[in-house]
Design a protein that fits this description.
The structure holds two protein chains of two kinds. Chain A is α+β, with helices and mostly antiparallel strands. Chain A has helices at 12-22, 71-75, 84-88, 95-110, 118-146, 150-171, 193-215, 219-225, 233-238, 244-248, 255-258, 279-303, 321-326, 328-340, 380-385, 388-391, 397-407, 411-415, and strands spanning 31-35, 47-53, 56-63, 180-181, 184-185, 344-355, 358-369, 374-378. In chain A, the strands form three sheets. Chain A has a three-stranded antiparallel β-sheet with strand order 1-2-3. In chain A, 50% of the residues are buried. In chain B, the strands form two sheets. Chain B has a five-stranded mixed β-sheet with strand order 1-2-5-4-3. In chain B, strands 6-7 form a two-stranded parallel ribbon. The chains are: A alpha+beta, B alpha/beta.
Chain lengths: 416, 208
């Protein structure tokens, strides 16, 4: 006769109760984990001090400042033109857009912002939109890689390489462009450059479509990002988010539409915005923004007028070299500009531009003369990161990389 | 020719108010302490004379006037002038599509302002930065620590009396704090063997 042994199979509630008893002495114990400052998902030198209960984050404290160079202090000690190279190093993934934003801010202070030649304005829009595509390509590539989709990164970097070649042909440098000048540009478009740009817009449209196919309906990607890192509309506004992160949270706001600068009011584009404010929405917003930027580039190419690229004012921008060598007045202007800078009036202005990461603002307080008394940089990444200690708690540790990737920040700009 | 604005949100509805109207309302509410507005390059600046009430002014601006977004919070060091500190608040309204700048000043002896981090949560980091860079304290701030500089750093580097080249410190365990060997930077370079501290523009051309 076979002997039967009673095996007691408890229900799940009883089993978990037993596990709780066994884990009595370690339960509730919190662990502190340092993520960064050198971690691939923190995109630079962000350090997160996370307090964990198991895999759940209970407290998050972002530590920033590892890349602080004192840009605002430096700005107080040099002329307006001399500070342009420093703006390259703010959001170093979109230096052209920073150059444009800074130039526009100083031009507003000088009161010459409405005197810019049309050609200059169109070229500056091209710069901003190229920078936007470049920054979003990197942002999306790195975001996808962080959540496990390696291929996308290679696709987007192929396109970025083409943008860098274009930027090199335009400015002479791939990374640190320093392309704008107060009242104009350092040089006009090189010969044949518009054709290369036209070819690029065709190619990048294809690449954006491919990236879209790789990610948008990718089950793993959607599972990792949907309903993760939800930022409500109210939170986004309260924490001062800007750019794609704000629009992802169902706020239809874009400085290019709300307060058009340059020639944005003469161009046709849509402002995409999300519904729930999760990582997936922020991804979709960036994806559509790239398409809109490509369309803006095409429109600019079609409308690009001829004419000068610099303001016709020797007190604002360096005069033509030939004239400097042959005419007394221009020689004096050149000498004054190089030694003392533009003579700004006393006053204060704020100018915010819609940069790839959000609203990059410059507050300039001038007491007159060629040097700002105080120059404050309102960096979008700095503000966007401040929401982390609010959003991260309650999430799993693996969601941190998805949330960081979707916020798409740059530490050069955050730390200044 | 500018094309027609896109329909919907970007068009000006009847209810939208200008910054001038909103500044006027603010002035009506706080008649004794609000002066201005001053206009420069199309931007309005309102001065609040009593810094201890800035939080109430901000709360009113947010709740009654619709300034739901604090763009930026900045401080200025009016070195050798009284009062020494000026705080600048950049407000924006998503409802009315307009900016307003609030300014208030506080003396060096006080060096403290009420925190607006309970009005807009974004002010939390801005105030930490202002404390870190200028040494102005914010009363009622939940977590007033240094943010860009490290904990234990002894100076406030954006103050006008802090030299560009840096300052050495007697404090132990503070990472290097010798003046930076950058010759004062390419922009102030003057031939000669002087220390970079002595070659800054301010030292060469003392103001006043």
């Amino acid at each position: 006769m076979a002997a039967f042994q009673q095996i007691e199979v408890k229900d799940s509630a009883a089993r978990s109760a037993q596990a709780m008893d066994e884990l009595q002495d370690v339960r509730g114990e919190k662990m502190t984990l340092n993520m960064g400052p050198s971690h691939p998902a923190t995109h630079g030198v962000l350090r997160l001090v996370l307090e964990l209960d198991g895999e759940i984050i209970t407290k998050a404290d972002p530590e920033i400042g590892y890349l602080h160079r004192g840009d605002e202090k430096i700005a107080e000690n040099m002329t307006y033109t001399q500070f342009i190279p420093y703006t390259d190093r703010l959001d170093y993934l979109a230096p052209l857009a920073n150059n444009v934003a800074y130039a526009l801010a100083v031009e507003k202070l000088l009161g010459v912002h409405d005197k810019l030649p049309e050609r200059c304005q169109y070229i500056r829009v091209i710069c901003c939109e190229l920078a936007r595509i470049s920054a979003h390509l990197l942002g999306l590539g790195a975001f996808a890689m962080d959540v496990g989709a390696m291929t996308v990164f290679l696709y987007t970097f192929t396109e970025r390489e083409k943008i860098y070649n274009l930027i090199e042909a335009l400015t002479g440098a791939r990374f640190t462009t320093t392309y704008t000048r107060i009242g104009g540009l350092s040089r006009d478009l090189p010969e044949g450059w518009t054709d290369e740009l036209a070819q690029f817009t065709r190619e990048v449209s294809v690449a954006i479509g491919e990236t879209d196919k790789l990610l948008t309906r990718n089950k793993i990607f959607v599972d990792r990002t949907r309903d993760v890192g939800v930022i409500t509309r109210e939170e986004a506004i309260d924490f001062g988010l800007t750019g794609p992160n704000l629009r992802g949270s169902n706020v239809e706001h874009d400085l290019r539409k709300a307060h058009p600068y340059l020639v944005y009011d003469q161009l046709d584009f849509d402002v995409p915005y999300g519904e729930v404010g999760d990582c997936y929405d922020r991804y979709l917003v960036r994806m559509e923004e790239m398409r809109q930027s490509v369309s803006l580039l095409d429109q600019c190419l079609a409308k690009l007028p001829g004419g000068p690229v610099n303001i016709d004012d020797g007190k604002i921008i360096l005069p033509d070299k030939q004239k400097v060598l042959s005419s007394m007045e221009e020689l004096i202007h050149q000498f004054m500009l190089v030694t003392q800078g533009q003579d700004a009036p006393a006053g204060e202005i704020y100018f915010g531009a819609e940069n790839p990461k959000g609203e990059l603002g410059f507050y300039i307080m001038s007491k007159g003369g060629g040097v700002p008394y105080r120059l404050k940089i309102r960096a979008p990444s700095f503000v966007n990161l401040s929401i982390l200690s609010h959003t991260l708690p309650g999430h799993m540790i693996s969601d941190v990389v998805a949330i960081l990737g979707s916020l798409d920040f740059v530490m050069g700009e955050c730390d200044r | 020719m500018p094309s027609q604005p896109a329909p919907g949100r970007w068009q000006s509805p009847e209810t939208r108010m200008s910054a001038k109207q909103l500044a006027k309302k603010l002035k009506q509410q706080f008649e004794e302490i609000v002066s201005g507005p001053v206009e420069f390059r199309g931007e309005l600046t309102v001065e609040v004379s009593d810094a201890s009430q800035i939080a109430e002014v901000c709360r009113f601006a947010k709740e009654a006037l619709g300034f739901d977004y604090l763009v930026d919070l900045t401080t200025i060091d009016n070195y050798e002038e009284a009062p020494r500190w000026t705080a600048v608040y950049h407000l924006y309204s998503y409802e009315h599509f307009c900016h307003l700048r609030l300014k208030t000043s506080v003396s060096e002896e006080v060096s403290e302002l009420p925190s607006v981090s309970t009005v807009w949560r974004t002010a939390n980091w801005h105030e930490r930065e202002a404390y870190d860079m200028m040494g102005i304290r914010f009363a009622g701030h939940p977590d007033l620590r240094r943010i860009l500089m490290w904990e234990g750093y002894p100076y406030f580097p954006l103050r006008k009396d802090f030299p560009l080249a840096g300052k050495s410190s007697e404090m132990p365990d503070v990472a290097f704090s010798d003046p930076a060997p950058l010759e004062g930077g390419p922009f102030v370079t003057v031939a000669g063997g002087e220390d970079s501290t002595a070659r800054e523009p301010r030292v060469r051309n003392p103001e006043g």
